[in-house]
Amino acid sequence: MKQGVCTLANYLPSLSPFGHPTTISTVERRRRDNINEKIQELGQLLPEQLVDGANKPNKGAILRKSVDHIKTLQTEVTTYAYRVKELESLLEKYRISGASLPSENGAPGASSQAASASQQGGGSMGMQGLQISGPSGNGNA
């Protein structure tokens, strides 16, 4: 069969797995319904401060705000990953030198419990005494 040839079969509805005719409009409606459902789900996942409570957000606004929020989250993930590496290298430096971890006010020795917990637990438990800056630079994340 040549391409571009119009036949009656091109215009007849196809049969669904259940033997019922499915028209193009039914398939298209299902596709639109699925897209609309997922856009609404995205809107529900957005933080309240991004959603205008007075007006129901339209699809474009939901998609735009979702993209902006995802970009913000990606930036935060990058920032936190960098900060974790910084803190891990700092922790390793203190382990190698045998010095005690600094306290929140910067005096060494006050966080010796954190250092021993880190050595015993072998993980992030020892980092509880360290101040962690969030992406905006504030003291607590």
From TrEMBL:
It comes from Jimgerdemannia flammicorona. One of its GO terms (cellular component) is nucleus. Its main location: nucleus. InterPro entries: bHLH_dom, HLH_DNA-bd_sf. Keywords: DNA-binding, Nucleus, Transcription, Transcription regulation. It comes from the Eukaryota. This is Helix-loop-helix DNA-binding domain-containing protein. Pfam families: HLH.
